[in-house]
Structure prediction request, 698 residues.
Amino acid sequence: MIDNPYYSQDNHGPWQVFDAGDLALEAGGVLHDLKLAYAVHGTLNAARDNAILVPTWYSGTSKVMEQLFIGPGRALDPARWCIIVVNQIGNGISSSPHNTAGAQAMAKFPRINVGDDVRAQHKLVTEVFGIERLALVFGGSMGAQQTYDWAVRYPDMVARAAPLAGYARNTDHDKLFVQTLMEAITSDPGFNGGNYRSHQEVAAGLARHAKLWSVMGWSTEFFAEEAWRGFNFKSVEEFQAKFMDPFFTPLDPNSLLVMARKWHDGDVTRMTGGDLAAALGRIKARTFVMPIDSDMFFRVADCAREQQLIPRSEFRPLHSLGGHLGLFGFEPAFLAALDANLNDLLALD
Amino acid sequence: MIDNPYYSQDNHGPWQVFDAGDLALEAGGVLHDLKLAYAVHGTLNAARDNAILVPTWYSGTSKVMEQLFIGPGRALDPARWCIIVVNQIGNGISSSPHNTAGAQAMAKFPRINVGDDVRAQHKLVTEVFGIERLALVFGGSMGAQQTYDWAVRYPDMVARAAPLAGYARNTDHDKLFVQTLMEAITSDPGFNGGNYRSHQEVAAGLARHAKLWSVMGWSTEFFAEEAWRGFNFKSVEEFQAKFMDPFFTPLDPNSLLVMARKWHDGDVTRMTGGDLAAALGRIKARTFVMPIDSDMFFRVADCAREQQLIPRSEFRPLHSLGGHLGLFGFEPAFLAALDANLNDLLALD
Prediction:
């Protein structure tokens, strides 16, 4: 185990821990003694029908989701909804390579699929909260992958689904991008096959990984308009050194890799023998598919292809100058448009 | 010196060599005893006014340009035009780190700018051929950078300019992409600061570099439509392993880095104190600016911004499913549209 202060309650809490026990994994094997960290905003009503589930994205935590999406006056208002934010497996807070002791620590942590997260979350939602139906599942990026998986796996349990900037089945192009992210880390000699003593031994690989996020994460127009000046930097070099590098280099490399492999392999058609129309056709939720118009890897066209296969869905693309990292919510108009969509969706029966 | 069979006359010849002598470099210092390799197709007429100059792109050679763009019935028809294809400095055939002996070999090869190439090419064109005015300068990608530099540096010498899929001044976003390409190579321990004994010692870095080219070089739609099937592969993995990897991994790492640094720093405003409007305003050539609509890093919007600053120019975007690597010319319609543009341009006074 490695004590990485980034993942502390001080930084990303408060959270509670659900002891999910042993989880049989889709790809084979068992994840032992799974700890699922979650945070709750608002109160579950007597009918238990006001619950919203928010899974996390790559590198995200329950605190990040709270800060971006939850609050009084927002679509996700704790005064009305009981919002359960759950940290995905491997995100550094729920069970992850660096915070697991013993036989599954570090490089020995097993391969996790998105579906494993969703089955563990199902256990949390039903056993801890006694919820039979979620009013909404909402997630961005890898959170969208989990949202799709929920809607396909448990169609009667998801009343509404709002996948933001993500795919139900990952594309070949996006897989190649994720491979470059993984290879930036694993190619660092300091990575040592996953058995480093500190994430700082992988600093060079993490910095290369951060630069790939700049190239593909933002949009070309973000740079053309020098939108990084809005972050109070004077040059792209300073933006990279003082924003992108500090964002990614404190993270645990094995943690990023568990998430990246999940992202890479995200595919709801594992439930339908590879048939995407069959998988998405199972969805009973009112679904708003929300790609970001400038996203370089979760592309509008690819999201539209999926939306067309979902029975009760609408296509609700969002504008951002930021590309995929418009998810960072630096544009008030982006968050307002997102909330308007979520309010529309929550108003549907 | 390293004998790399990729760069042989058998593979990429025939070419001739111009001994350009010592070249004072924009970034400082001197490149000694520059050998500029070039190939000529067609015959210079008595008026010496039918010459077309074609510089090469990143990884490109005079043979590649010939195969893609030159031939009977093409816009660049040797029956009418005298087409001079010149290998850029550092491309592995003209003077490059691995084919240079002595004090400037390998890691000691100096930093080259696009303007250095253009001044050396000017010497070739005037001293060897006695040409006072080029009917056309045409180049794609880094060839477009050289085309722009020619038109700005020698406005009275360039009657027509056809920059295809490239910028006059590189963008911040594209610089970040080029940095990831360079870092994929230099981070390989086998690179050894540029002093490897064989490019095969850098095979892992070259393969990561090839994967970055897949992510950014092609378009997302290329993968969505599985256009790689047109190359007779059965999976993306096979396409990567049998096309992209074999394309890039035989190349010399230092050679790629010399070109990448040039590409990164490409900027005609070095001639006008950073003023893009002033630089492009100098151009007297009839100019067709031709971005590729699906290009992920030489973007249509950024090319359009430059075109608007060029006095006698037209915006002539080309369609390809292939993104930037539409330049590989795998679509007959792309090459036909390009030739139509070039014919239109060559018909202008």
